[in-house]
Amino acid sequence: MPLSTVRPYAYRANDAGRSAAGLTADQKLVLITARQTVKQLTSYLIEHFGVQTALSFDGGRSASMAWLDATNHVQQFAPSNQSRAVAVGMMVFTQ
Predict the structure, then answer these.
(1) Distance of alpha carbon 59 from alpha carbon 18, whole angstroms
(2) CA 17: distance to chain centroid?
(3) pTM for the whole thing?
């Protein structure tokens, strides 16, 4: 669904950890984890990346992102400064 037709401010007005994935017009994938309201996150994706379609994932303490840095060490960002066990996650790999 195009983001221009979504009313993200109709719910989840609280500031919390959130993760989302979006696609730009040229089909580039944008992944983000931040501490924002849904409205702020939606605006950020549109204004900074030109995202046209997006999916918001479960938020709160389960929102986190991990990646390998240039020296192959795992780095992690959790906006809530806390973590918890999660049964399901999304992984993205490059070749």
Answers:
(1) 4
(2) 9
(3) 0.72
